[in-house]
Amino acid sequence: MKDPTTQFGVYLKEAPLKIFAGEEKTVYYIHVGVLLACKSSTANVRINGHWKDTGDGAIDWTHFDRQTVECVLHYLYTGDYYVPYFLPMKGSAVEGVQKSLDQAENNVDEPPSPLSTLSTCDALPPTESSLLEGDTTKRPLTPIRNCVKAGFPVENMKTAAGFVVVKDSEHDKHVIGASVLMHSKVYSFAHQHFFSDLANFALQRLTQVLALAPDDCALMFPYLADAIRHIYDTTPGPEIQEDPARKLLSQYVAMNYTHLAGEELSALVEEGGDLMIDISKKLVRLLTTNTSEIFCLERKVHSLSAEVGELQTICKDKEQEIQNLQARYESEVTTLSAIKNSRKKKSGSLY
Hints:
By secondary structure, this protein is mostly helical. The chain folds into two domains: 1-63, no CATH class; 66-271, no CATH class. The chain has helices at 4-12, 32-36, 42-48, 66-78, 91-106, 161-169, 174-192, 196-211, 223-234, 244-255, 257-260, 263-271, 273-349, and strands spanning 17-21, 26-30, 59-61. It has a three-stranded mixed sheet. Strand 1 and strand 2 (26-30) form a beta hairpin. It is elongated, with a radius of gyration of 34 Å. Residues 50-55, 88-134 and 155-171 have low confidence and may be disordered.
């Protein structure tokens, strides 16, 4: 196995490639070796393909905004990325994020974040531990927090996405919505360009953020709506394959449907398409499960009611038995008292 330091040195010996990102065609540079490490990606094919000597060698990623591309580049070099919070948001959110980043740099012994509780699946059977495994048509919807893969890193760096989300969510709930949108964009990029490891990573980060979403889910709009539209516009439909990000987002909406009710959700519903088909299927599962649970609870209540009736009958019998014993006791006490009095009278007459 090659020494990572030596391998990184090899990367630095090669001239970097130019990347154009976003509509404004912002220029970035990346070392060839970093892209070559992603064997199945389109970037690898672009470098090694038979057309590699054509053009100026620049990579065109202008169909994704520069924030998304920066996250991708950050991941390719470090194995992690943080959400760039220069997305449009309230000033308090930006200040909160900066405060969190400063704390991350200064506090080495930071206590475990709430995300650490999500890094392993709860005690569930194998078929319940992931959205991607097993037949899901006849079982309850898996809670979002149970969809995080066991052993998935909570944060590789103190400024990682998960850390920032946890810290700043205490100050501004809209930051979580912005994180949902950015992780969705990174997943979409990785999916389209066949960066499989990055796609899995972004999907897990998205799952972690959704698991930490505030109780008032409406605060996540409009970011959540944009994330859903982006995923459904850039990933294949069910006729080709079941996309895990689609399943995750539709499941989140279905499980929080009443909390998400409002104009934003109504607009999504009116758009129809694959999203509403997916949500409808999951709502049917949810209702079926709830109906089954209600039926089971009704049977249990009926059984308990019958048991209570039997216990009440036993109780009445015992009360009657106690009353009989008490009457017998009082009768015997009266008899004994009469005998004692009679003996006293007899003994007195002898003298």
